[in-house]
Design a protein that fits this description.
The protein is an alpha+beta fold. The chain is about 55% helix and about 10% strand. The chain has a 4-stranded mixed sheet, with helices on one face.
Length: about 200
């Protein structure tokens, strides 16, 4: 039985849950309360010495880091495939999954943290800067999606990596501009997937 050590609001945990749903894999969710620093307990640190979620346990295998977990799931449970068939396509998917983590999730997390502060402590200049940075990412994706339904051509891990933060953009005060037609169409395609619909209900 697969076990996922999970914090529901973590975009990295959500990324893994999306892949588990896409592959229709049953698993047990083990809640790790980050607000109580449960990820720093000795028991958890034996699973992941970095003290971060998610962690996936599959029989005797213990895997951490959302990207490595999703690669493991793709290798161990290859159907349906979530990486392109060609080496070039797979490389592109990996590049954009990394880009999602470092340029999209990381940036949006800064905005989330700023907006969670008491109203009188929110730095509006930072908020505007973070929103502008996210719009730049979306504009970059607009060019990358030209002539493609999905980032790597076929639906892949790369697309799923963007989903957790794409879903909350409106709550962050970021609307996808109408001029970004490729991004809007791609976003709507992703929202139609059962795995994404399920995540929105969680």
């Amino acid at each position: 039985m697969i076990k996922l050590y999970d914090f529901p609001q973590s975009p990295y945990c959500q990324k893994v849950r999306l892949v588990l749903a896409e592959k229709d894999l049953s698993y047990e969710k083990i809640f790790v309360d980050l607000t109580k620093n449960e990820q720093k307990t000795p028991d958890f640190l034996r699973l992941n010495p970095y003290g971060k979620v998610p962690v996936l346990v599959d029989d005797d295998e213990v895997i951490y880091d959302s990207t490595i977990i999703n690669e493991y799931l793709e290798d161990e449970y290859p159907h349906p495939p979530l990486l392109p068939a060609t080496s070039g396509g797979r490389a592109r998917a990996r590049i954009f999954e990394d880009f999602a983590d470092n340029a999209f999730i990381a940036q949006s997390s800064l905005l989330v943290a700023e907006l969670r502060k008491p109203a009188d402590q929110v730095d509006q200049e930072r908020v505007q800067r973070y929103r502008t940075d996210l719009l730049r990412v979306l504009e970059f994706l607009e060019r990358q999606l030209e002539g493609r339904d999905y980032i790597a051509g076929t639906f892949s891990l790369a697309d799923l990596a963007f989903v957790p933060r794409l879903l909350i953009l409106p709550r962050l005060g970021v609307e996808i501009p109408a001029r970004l037609k490729n991004v809007l169409a791609w976003s709507e395609r992703l929202k139609q997937r059962p795995s994404v619909s399920q995540l929105q209900l969680e």
